[in-house]
Amino acid sequence: MNVIETLLASAMLAAAPLMLAAIGEAIGQRSGQLNLGVEGVMLLGAFTGFVVVEAGGTVSAGLVAAMIIGMVVGAGFGLATTLLSANQIVLGLGVALAGEGATGYLFRERFGLSQPLLDAGMSRPLHHFAGIPVVGPALFDQRWFVYLAWALVVGIGAWMRYGRPGLILRAAGESPFATEAAGVDVQRVRVIAAIVGQGLVGLGGGALSLVEVGFFTPGMTVGIGFIAIAIAMVGQQRPLRIAGLAIVFGLLRGSGTAIQLTNVDVQTEFLELLPYAGVLVLVVLMGRQVRLPRALGLAYDRESRNA
Amino acid sequence: MKLIRLFRSGLIVGVLLSTAWMPWFAMDDVSAKTEVDKVAIVTPASRSNQGWDQQGVDTLVAIGKDRDIEVEVVENAGNDPITPVLRDLADDDVDLVFCHASGYQSECPEFAQSEGVPVVVIENPDAVLDGLVADIETQAQKVAYLAGVMAAAETKTGKVAIVVSGEPPTWNYMTAGFAQGVHDTNPDVELIYSVIGEAAYDDSPNAKRVTETVIAAGADIVFGMGDGASFGMIQAIREHNAESEDEQAVRFIDVIGDKSDSEAGEFLMTSVLFDYTGAYTTMIDDLEAGTFGSVYTMNLENEGVRLLEPPIEIDPATMEQVEKARQGILDGTITVPTISDAEELETFLDDLAGDQE
What we know:
The structure holds two protein chains of two kinds.
Chain A: H1 3-30, H2 38-54, H3 59-82, H4 88-111, H5 136-140, H6 144-162, H7 164-174, H8 176-181, H9 186-213, H10 224-234, H11 239-261, H12 268-287
Chain B: H1 2-26, E1 38-42, H2 52-67, E2 70-74, H3 83-91, E3 96-99, H4 107-115, E4 119-122, E5 133-138, H5 141-154, E6 159-164, H6 169-185, E7 190-195, H7 204-216, E8 221-225, H8 230-242, E9 251-256, E10 268-274, H9 277-289, E11 295-298, E12 305-307, H10 316-331, H11 342-356
Parallel strand pairs in B: 1-2, 1-3, 3-4, 4-5, 5-11, 6-7, 6-8, 8-9, 9-10
Antiparallel strand pairs in B: 10-12
């Protein structure tokens, strides 16, 4: 592979954890819940998956474990914000901090001073077509999970947009009281949305440690969780838009190295800033068209009409 | 009333005068210190990163065990102000603090002067103060030069990459030395220089991506300076080698620590090893002797920095070239550049690249 092919392939691979986290957050946002703890949930998923595989489990088992831990956190978040009317912003930030702290602590307790690395063992089912110039490696030389991630994102997006459950989800996020009056248990919808959504976030974290990099280090998300939140909002919960934004982020992140290789004189700090600034620019440009659910971030209390 | 006012004024003056003298009495007479019981080391990142931080901690802990000195380790202190940490250590009655990062080189001397606790800083000789501040200089460029000789002699593709997780003086010294070593051995070898980030010492995922890119650009030897980020470089090389033919295998040159027993051992050519034993021992001895407060330089000559014995097979002809270069450095026939500034380094690398064209 040459540099361009590597850059494109790397962007596609890097997009998988990010778009899973973004679509998971999007599910929660659709139902009216804003979870700022995506960073923490991703770290928990990344750590859990890594521990399972390092202990001898398969990558599939690790990914499932990552998803389960995300679902557990999602259940806690959903129940706290619905039954206990906990502030979503504060709780989400707490989850982010707790996730980072807990995984750092647990990693040291489990592995001490060592840094285990996983063997690269995932198959590449479409490798046969990877010889196509430029795009071949990016599209056909990926590990199987990348294709699964795409299928999940597109499938969930279609479900949210066209399926009846997606319609109920949107109604719960737009007008929870009217939805309740129509016979839908909004609190139940939100809890389920949190479980499913954060399950996907945890899966995204597992993909980061098991599929993309092959190890876990404390704090390894480096802000990707917050990028996922922004992409979920700007992506308007549309799967292809979310995936596209995730790929753009991956490309911008990889382009820093590619630019250095061309010997163009650019400050390192600017290259490091590039992917985050790029997302910021997109948020500003596309943000004007963004229409978020009306009840996003607001606690829903059946007994009052404050949401 | 006049008397009362006079008395009150006198009392205030008396209190002010006595508190002005207090700091002087509070400071231990460190120059006469006879025994070191407790020392501390503050590191910006984890002591398990098998790099900069771990090397300092492990060395001090080993010395502590050997000399029955209690060692307090404060890791992951980051690059933000550490004065609260230093004050806690002062409250714990430590006799000496090793401020193990160039980012602490200003804060620690200030702390030493205000609290009277001796400190050791990195790469700040101007801060040296009798009895209070000592400095460690790491002149690794000469050993990095030898690593460059090895890389230039061993590369099959004619492309060697330098991947760094930042551009602090310590890394820059080694980059310049390595680049010169490569150039002097074979000026046709292309150097690929990549910076992961401004202070990306723990950013292993990004380190992996950057290393994948330089491998894609044709580098078959990677000289990596990463601390925790090194694991990303190692993983990139592992995955590449697992999916490539033997002759396309990429090899790694590390810095600071010895990763022979890790997953990198299969492709680790050598490492520019930092051995703090001599420096730390000397400083503790100096403190006990009342002569604390000097610059200690770790370099090729005193083996404070040395090349790790290759864990993998290296062509004997290459090793002869390396030894010849070592002798050349020691007898002065080979001059290795001493560049710590990032901009100066960039100019230097551009000049070397220009020589190639």
